[in-house]
């Protein structure tokens, strides 16, 4: 056995760009892990463990060599170093009564793999390396790690740094510490689902009788079952360093993992699988398909209806209809009311009266002046509040972030603006009849002017004119009859024009109202719950990614 000196300076754990991975189940699993992490970020979940697992996996498959790395992990005095020395048949890692004994990881590596394992051990920050030529335990590099319950806090931190990076773990305890809370609660419960190949070693079993030793073994198996990533049982072995027979089971277990690449890939897959499952559980998904929606469809529809009603109340559709009818009549007046109508229309426009009461486009654009969206905002917030109560605790903060009344109000305001813009520019309708009305009104106006001039002439000069016999009134001079008939014709034409324009305007105003109402409802439906829909989409993407992980990482 040879000691190989190495630099004590640890290489940074940040990976360099890895070589391209082949298109195989593991590479698809790693790609899906990033998709799952991105979706988890949207949900406000902690995706860092899964990202770390992905990063470590990418880096790990990029290292050459045909050996895998197994770590001996355990508490103070359980005999990790003694087990390694017993396997080696020589002192590899110092073992003594002084605690803690192991301050830095010690690697025991196959001599044939020393060179290829160099970059990997540097990545792990392992400086002390021992070589061996043992052929009966398979291509494995064994690390003796510091104690997990050491009084030196940096020792535990060192273990926690290395655990995500090694390929397999042998959890070492003894007949006195096998129920130790530090090992069980802080490490086994967390790490067993995230590892592929692992074993629990109950050391110093020679201190118990055969029956008691088997009882301890069964007790520990029952306590740990089922905690593996794939649901399988954890292997528990009884070991002792006092005889070769005491470590025979460990040698056999090591030899069974001779396919190093399978061990490595299995470790990566198990870690990705556990990280993905943790995220789906946190998102309220059982891990196979999306759970119940964050907001039930009935509650969503009711909130949209209430919000739309409140928004349309501010938009004021009845007043919009009146504006549309007035705009149609103003358009008809300019074309069909004759010369006097054009003068009246000019005065109507220049005085600002038409802009105030007959401009539906301006009326819509100034909808904010007619009230606030408080009731609409409250409808949305009330529905979202209900979704928070029923949501998984881990994603409640993300849902709560969508409840900010300022954000909800701004979203609704943008929705109304888009609705108004999407409804188009409203141009009053026109009719060819208005031209005819205009000609007739022009003739009527001319007749009125001529009749009025005739009346003036008759009053001043008293020329001889005919008369028309009118019941009760008697004979009426023709100039007066002509003037009255002209005025009556103009009035009738104006009334017909107004009635026709009112009919067209009412029909158009209903279309304007319906177009605005539909546009507002559509925008409210799409915009009011857009942040929540983004969370729902993230849950679906997370579920889809983890489904890929389940299939491809499950193949290992």
Quick gist of this model?
The chain has 556 residues and is α/β, with parallel strands linked by helices.
Describe this structure in words.
The protein is an alpha/beta fold and 556 residues long. Helices cover 59% and strands 9% of the residues. It is built from 20 helices and ten strands. Strands 1-4-3-5-2-6-7-8 form an eight-stranded mixed beta sheet, sandwiched between helices. The chain has a two-stranded antiparallel ribbon with strand order 9-10. Helix 10 packs antiparallel against helix 19. It is rod-shaped. It starts with a strand and ends with a helix.
Secondary-structure topology with pairs:
Layout: E1 3-4, H1 25-42, H2 48-61, E2 68-74, H3 80-88, E3 106-110, H4 114-124, E4 128-132, E5 140-144, H5 153-162, E6 168-174, H6 181-191, E7 197-203, H7 210-224, E8 235-238, H8 248-256, H9 260-282, H10 297-315, H11 317-336, H12 338-350, H13 353-357, H14 360-365, H15 374-390, H16 396-400, H17 405-422, H18 433-461, E9 467-470, E10 474-477, H19 478-527, H20 530-553
Parallel strand pairs: 2-5, 2-6, 3-4, 6-7, 7-8
Antiparallel strand pairs: 1-4, 3-5, 9-10
Helix pairs in contact: 1-2, 1-9, 1-20, 2-9, 9-20, 10-15, 10-19, 11-12, 11-19, 15-17, 17-19, 18-19
């Amino acid at each position: 056995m040879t000691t190989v000196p190495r630099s004590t300076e640890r290489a940074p754990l940040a990976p360099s760009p890895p070589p391209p991975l082949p298109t195989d189940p593991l590479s698809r699993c790693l790609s899906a892990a990033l998709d799952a992490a991105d979706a988890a970020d949207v949900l406000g979940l902690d995706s860092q463990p899964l990202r770390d697992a992905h990063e470590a996996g990418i880096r790990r498959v990029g290292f050459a060599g045909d050996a895998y790395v197994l770590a001996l992990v355990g508490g103070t005095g359980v005999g990790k170093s003694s087990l390694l020395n017993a396997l080696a048949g020589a002192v590899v890692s110092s073992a003594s009564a002084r605690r803690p004994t192991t301050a830095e990881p010690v690697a025991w590596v196959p001599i044939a793999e020393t060179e290829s394992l160099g970059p990997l051990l540097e990545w792990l920050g392992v400086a002390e390396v021992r070589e061996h030529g043992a052929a009966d335990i398979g291509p494995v590099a064994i690390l003796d790690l510091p104690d997990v319950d050491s009084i030196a806090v940096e020792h535990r931190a060192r273990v926690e740094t290395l655990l995500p990076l090694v390929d397999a773990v042998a959890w070492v305890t003894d007949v006195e510490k096998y129920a130790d809370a530090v090992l069980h609660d802080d490490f086994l419960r967390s790490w067993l689902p995230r590892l592929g190949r692992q074993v629990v070693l109950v050391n110093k079993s020679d201190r118990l009788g055969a029956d008691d030793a088997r009882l301890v073994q069964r007790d520990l198996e029952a306590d740990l079952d089922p905690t593996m990533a794939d649901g399988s049982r954890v292997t528990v072995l009884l070991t002792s360093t006092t005889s070769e027979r005491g470590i025979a089971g460990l040698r056999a277990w090591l030899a069974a993992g001779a396919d190093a690449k399978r061990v490595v890939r299995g470790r990566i897959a198990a870690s990705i699988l556990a990280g993905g499952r943790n995220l789906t559980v946190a998102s309220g998904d059982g891990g196979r398909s999306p759970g119940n929606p964050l907001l039930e469809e009935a509650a969503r529809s009711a909130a949209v209806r209430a919000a739309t009603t409140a928004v349309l109340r501010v938009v004021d559709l009845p007043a919009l209809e009146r504006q549309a009818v007035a705009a149609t009549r103003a358009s008809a007046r300019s074309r069909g009311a004759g010369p006097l109508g054009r003068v009246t229309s000019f005065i109507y426009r220049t005085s600002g009266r038409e802009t105030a009461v007959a401009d539906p486009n301006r009326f819509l654009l100034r909808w904010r002046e007619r009230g606030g969206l408080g009731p609409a905002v409250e409808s949305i917030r009330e529905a979202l509040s209900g979704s928070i109560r029923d949501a998984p605790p881990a994603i409640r903060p993300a849902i709560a972030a969508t409840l900010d009344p300022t954000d909800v109000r701004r979203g609704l305001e943008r929705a109304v603006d888009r609705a108004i813009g999407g409804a188009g520019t409203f141009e009053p309708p026109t009719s060819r009849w208005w031209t005819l009305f205009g000609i007739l009104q022009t003739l009527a106006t001319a007749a009125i002017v001529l009749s009025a001039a005739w009346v003036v002439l008759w009053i001043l000069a008293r020329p001889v004119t005919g008369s028309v016999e009118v019941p009760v009134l008697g004979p009426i001079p023709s100039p007066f009859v002509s003037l009255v008939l002209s005025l009556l014709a103009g009035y009738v034409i104006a009334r017909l024009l107004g009635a026709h324009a009112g009919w067209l305007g009412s029909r158009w105003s209903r279309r304007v109202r319906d177009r605005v109402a539909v546009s507002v409802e559509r925008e409210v439906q799409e915009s009011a719950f857009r942040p929540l829909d983004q969370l729902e989409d993230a849950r679906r993407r997370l579920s889809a990614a983890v489904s890929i992980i389940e299939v491809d990482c499950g193949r290992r």
